[in-house]
């Protein structure tokens, strides 16, 4: 990836995150007003989740800048693994917020806290849900297009916010229709469960990235490309390793060549194979090969096909 392209990607991601942050702050204020007006447990929980969301987005915005910081003396592989840390932090924050929502729902149910000004609460919460729906879908689309785990995780968090708002709206509608405030607390409990599920999904994805879990689809594509390149040149390969550090795919493999090839020619062939593999890595990739003569071929891992 060229330096100019990297700068554009960084600027684009920072722009998207800035929008997410300021829209999040605005909607948090809207929900806090709705919670104050209505006294609804569901809306109160929705507002609490939004407070957590803003904190998480602020950390994610910082992570976007850090992820593009180049390698240095203390971080030889760069800083983009912070993407997974950011995703895990956001998932953890969501999960904690869900527990608070459940606690508050139970407390208000037991204490019999009344719900007021239902119509105003419905309007404000419905507006927040609609804005978050548009924002969340936009963030996920941008995350997929830019291959950004941070943007995708943030989009999923925003969509989780939509669920909390939708649950609050349903609860208020039932309260308005029946006059029974029990529905408000039940809606808050459902909201808490949905939010918790979203948070766990993000945490699991984050742990997978931090533990270098292999992406099966990319692993298949890399193997197919290697087999094609090796077959054309009468070579073989083994000890393939593939990991994703958040923005960059790292690929390593051993390339087995004829004993009679000179170092120069073997290097040229390896460079051609590396370049072919690098082309399929999105959005950026680093490919490293180790050359072995046929007579010294050594497979280091029993799991390697």
UniProtKB/TrEMBL annotation:
Keywords, comma-separated and alphabetical: Membrane, Transmembrane, Transmembrane helix, Transport
Domain of life: Bacteria
Bilayer-crossing regions: 21-44, 50-68, 89-110, 122-140, 160-179, 185-203
Domain Cation efflux protein transmembrane: 20-211
Primary localization class, coarse: membrane
Pfam (any one): ZT_dimer
Family: Belongs to the cation diffusion facilitator (CDF) transporter (TC 2.A.4) family.
Protein's name according to its UniProt entry: Ferrous-iron efflux pump FieF
Organism: Rubritalea halochordaticola
